[in-house]
Write a structure and sequence with these properties.
The protein is mainly α.
Length: 264
């Protein structure tokens, strides 16, 4: 099973699962926005505590999140290393040409690492606790005012839900193709860079073919069920705002105030 958990949905009966999808969608983006207010150890500690409490309230095993972050660690560490060695200021521990290891660079690197991890965690928490259909309904509801400008709100929300739904499927299919190619003697981690790039081609071709085939089958299934777009469609489940959504929103507002007060 692929370890990338972004896009997967785990059904549970937790406080986070029962929140209105609009609350989770807007709240996640709002948290990412206010995260840039943090610029010291106190503010980042508060943000980490908020995420840990949210994960506990979701009743999802925290180790599952750690395993899901693992595929992105290399990208995060590469960005952090650039921040550490190309940021000047503070006490200089080591220097070689344009590269400098300073106290400010180390601190900034830790903050950047924490920020990346928190952004991944809040995004993953949203998708793990929100079904693709609920996500689609939330996006359509939030974008509804744009209909006066003839914006295709329903179509955009449908594309988003389909994309989120098939991200795990494509990742699992990629892993299956790679395993099949390895069984035929293909090596993906050996040789020069050009050889490694050529080794990826046997993966991309069947993956694209299968993706187009699945898209055609999905379109046929939707047409067979009478799908004609968003005009005149009714809903089986209506989105409802509850007291828990208000409390969650007020918590984010309180977090914003505290982060602002703890800024340097």
């Amino acid at each position: 099973m692929n370890k990338l958990i972004l896009g997967r949905f785990i059904p549970e009966n937790s406080f986070i699962h029962r929140l209105d999808p609009r609350t989770k969608f807007v709240g996640s983006f709002y948290f990412i926005f206010i995260l840039f207010l943090a610029n010291n150890w106190q503010s980042y500690s508060l943000a980490c505590a908020f995420i840990l409490i949210a994960i506990l309230f979701s009743k999802i095993n925290p180790s599952f999140f750690l395993k899901g972050i693992r595929p992105l660690i290399v990208l995060i560490l590469f960005t952090v290393i650039l921040q550490i060695f190309f940021t000047s200021g503070g006490k200089v521990f080591w220097s070689l040409g344009p590269l400098r290891l300073t106290s400010y660079g180390l601190t900034n690197g830790v903050f950047i690492f924490t920020r990346f991890v928190l952004i991944i965690l809040i995004s993953t928490l949203m998708t793990l606790t929100t079904s693709p259909l609920s996500m689609s309904d939330a996006v359509e509801s939030l974008l509804r005012p744009l209909r006066i400008f003839h914006f295709p709100v329903h179509e955009v929300s449908l594309m988003l839900s389909i994309a989120l739904r098939f991200v795990p499927t494509l990742m699992d299919e990629t892993e299956k193709i790679m395993n099949a190619q390895k069984a035929r003697g293909v090596e993906f981690n050996e040789g020069s860079l050009l050889k490694r790039i050529k080794a990826i081609i046997p993966i991309l071709i069947p993956l694209f073919v299968n993706s187009f085939k699945r898209a055609d089958e999905l379109a046929t299934a939707m047409e067979a069920r009478g799908y004609q777009g968003g005009e005149g469609r009714t809903r089986y489940r209506e989105l409802t705002w509850h007291t828990r959504d208000t409390l969650s929103s007020l918590t984010l507002v309180a977090l914003t105030i505290v982060l602002w007060l703890t800024r340097k």
